[in-house]
Design brief:
single chain, alpha+beta, Porin, Serine Threonine Protein Phosphatase 5, Tetratricopeptide repeat, 2 domains, 16-stranded antiparallel barrel, 43% strand, disordered N terminus
Length: 491
């Protein structure tokens, strides 16, 4: 009797090879120690803070420098094993005899062609209902290749039978990767009520509880550039949720010190944030007020549309802090901000577009755009993800208080992002090159790296490094930064 093998542990975006041999265990040990080694070798005198906006939502993000000197936000790293390395479980029933079109999907799955399996599976499900084993194969492949919205109904179709628990864990994982740990937690609990020793549900529940727990984060950092402009920053942030887990609250106190030769300015600020995941538009609100010199109230809000594919932002922001310049900090500059972003999945990868407009109180305006492709192409293996994009920036007039290219600046860039990790550690690294396509832009490069390591169930350390070179104001411009943070969970 032929037995059909079905992979039941589901994780998207394959990056990490779970330990199966002594050699892999050694690699895992090195991975866990590397953040600590990096932490110990960083000179504290070079601490840096990227020139970036604080996110308007309570969801954490890592930020990757683009060659134009702007920022491309990356989602928080999740534990993401390589699907091909998962243990397969054998079905108790005989594998059904399938028509050639369905068997092709099974064969492609065996060969690890998950992108093709997901695409062919969506076409199949639009015309007919696959058997349970094939349904799980399709759902897994959709999740593994990042098509999380499409994976949800595929998993939900498996509500009964011997594969129901595997589908339930897969569905919980997908919700967790979409930032809905509050939805994932009861799904893991449901599986564990039937199978108390289910390892995938146990691990998923621990990761969900980690995200849902109250958290205090202390971050220190700084930056410096080729104009001798320096910034030092210290931030303390506390985040918690209500009993449902869908309402997120944050309170933050931070201070920055900017300096140029002969000029120095400092500012302290208190910030409150709220993000409600339970409402249809998932609104988020941020209120902040400097506590020294400038006592203006700044407020920003954001909503999400089209199943989180579109984000709209508006508000009044503290431009003097965004500018990273002591002259701007002394001038207490503010700006009216309007922003929009949209994400769409295609067969070639995920495309994200962003528009941001700032009307600044000094009479200037800044308009930025970014069109970014995260490709599904994996020429160097599952850990490495190619990307490419176009980034632009324009200004009404030029000022030395912040980057304001009066003739505009347009960059075409391409690079490679690598990610590695397990449930207790993660690392990422990125490198990219850019070429000027109009205005004041020129050739550029950018590199970044970072990671997070859980020292215990409740304490983690993290670090982000970044360096770049581009063309600004008729000459080469270089900048670098370092951020270090300590995170404590309260549970």
């Amino acid at each position: 009797m032929k037995v059909q093998k079905v992979q039941t542990q589901v994780q998207p975006h394959p990056f990490y090879q779970p330990e199966r041999t002594t050699a892999v265990s050694h690699r895992r040990l090195i991975l866990r120690c590397l953040p600590c080694v990096m932490f110990a070798t960083v000179p504290l005198g070079g601490l840096a803070q990227p020139n970036s906006l604080s996110p308007n939502t309570a969801i954490e993000s890592q930020r990757l420098g683009t060659p134009n000197g702007g920022w491309l936000p990356l989602p928080s790293f999740k534990f993401i094993p390589i699907p091909g390395a998962q243990k397969a479980s054998e079905s108790d029933a005989q594998s059904p005899k399938r028509p050639p079109s369905q068997q092709r999907i099974v064969d492609l799955n065996t060969a690890g062609e998950y992108q093709t399996v997901g695409t062919a599976g969506l076409e199949l499900m639009a015309k007919e209902k696959p058997d349970d084993e094939l349904q799980l194969i399709i759902a897994n492949s959709l999740a593994w290749t990042g098509r999380l919205r499409a994976a949800i109904p595929a998993y939900e179709a498996l509500t009964s039978g011997p594969l129901a628990s595997a589908a339930q864990v897969g569905l919980a994982n997908v919700h967790r990767w979409r930032g809905r740990d509050d939805i994932a937690k009861p799904l893991y609990d449901k599986v564990l009520a039937v199978e108390p020793e289910n390892p995938d549900a146990i691990e998923g529940l621990e990761l969900a509880n980690r995200e849902l727990s109250p958290r205090t984060l202390i971050e220190v950092g700084g930056s410096t550039d080729s104009t001798d402009n320096k910034r030092r920053i210290l931030t303390t942030n506390h985040r918690w949720r209500d009993q449902s887990g869908a309402k997120i609250y944050e309170v933050e106190a931070s201070g920055v010190q900017d300096s140029l030769p002969g000029i120095e300015a400092a500012q302290q600020e208190v910030t409150l944030r709220h993000h409600d995941l339970s409402l249809a538009l998932k609104p988020s609100l941020e209120l902040s007020m400097p506590t020294r010199y400038d006592h203006s109230l700044y407020a920003s809000g954001a909503i999400k549309l089209a199943d989180d594919q579109i984000t709209l932002e508006a508000g009044r922001v503290n431009w003097s802090r965004i500018a990273t310049n002591p002259n701007a900090l002394r001038a207490s500059l503010a700006a009216t901000h309007l922003g929009a972003s949209a994400t769409q999945d295609f067969s070639m990868g995920t495309v994200q577009g962003k528009l941001h407009y700032y009307n600044i109180t000094d009479g200037n305006t800044i308009f930025t755009t970014n069109l970014h492709l995260a490709s599904v192409w994996r020429p160097l293996g599952d850990h490495f993800k190619p990307f490419a994009g176009i980034e632009t920036r324009s200004a009404k007039f030029n000022t030395s208080n912040y980057w304001s290219p009066e003739l505009g600046s347009g960059i075409l860039y391409a690079g490679l992002l690598g990610e590695w990790g397990d449930s207790n550690s993660n690392l990422f690294a990125s490198a990219q090159l850019g070429s000027g396509i109009y205005g004041e832009a020129g050739s550029s490069w950018s590199i970044s790296a970072g990671g997070k390591h859980w020292l215990s169930n409740d304490v983690a350390i993290g670090m982000n490094l970044w360096a770049m070179s581009s063309w600004r104001d008729g000459s080469v411009y270089k900048a670098q930064s370092v951020n270090l943070n300590l995170e404590k969970l309260w549970r």
